Amino acid sequence: PAGRGTQIAADPARARAEVRPWVAFYVGGLGSRTKNYYQQTVSQYGFAEDADAIQDLYLTGRKLEAIKRVPDALVDAITLAGPPSLIKERLAACAKAGVTILIAAIQGRDQAQRLRALEIVAASAPRERLASKGRTTRRIRRRAMPTRTAEASGTGAMAAGKGAKRQGSGAVEG
Predict the structure, then answer these.
(1) Does residue 144 have a pLDDT over 70?
(2) pTM of the entire predicted model
């Protein structure tokens, strides 16, 4: 399986800006300085210097600086952010690379925007022929995830507990 933060917007720069806090949180804020899977993974993708700087900024409480430090190339490498045509192109590249399950962390300001994004991702997913049945398949699973809430620092935190807002997340399987 492969995971991708997902933001649909006609303007790729706006889409990147919307998903950039998510990238900074995963790369810089999850885990400890010595054990952070996401920081280590993006380092292996060729972003070691960026990953170290993002983690240092995030762990020293400079979250807004960490968000600003996330380069466009890193956002493009690990998310689906941009117009529907770009999402379709990126999903095709994932399929070509052998990804059979993609977990899309759908981003959006409200439920309607998140559902629209989920529909776009589902419609853009490559279809495969099942050799034994000769039919096309594309399965979507939805599950509820906590939504981000704004903190005074301008970054997001996962809402949890009783009464927390929920948002849809989907896994696209091909």
Answers:
(1) no
(2) 0.67
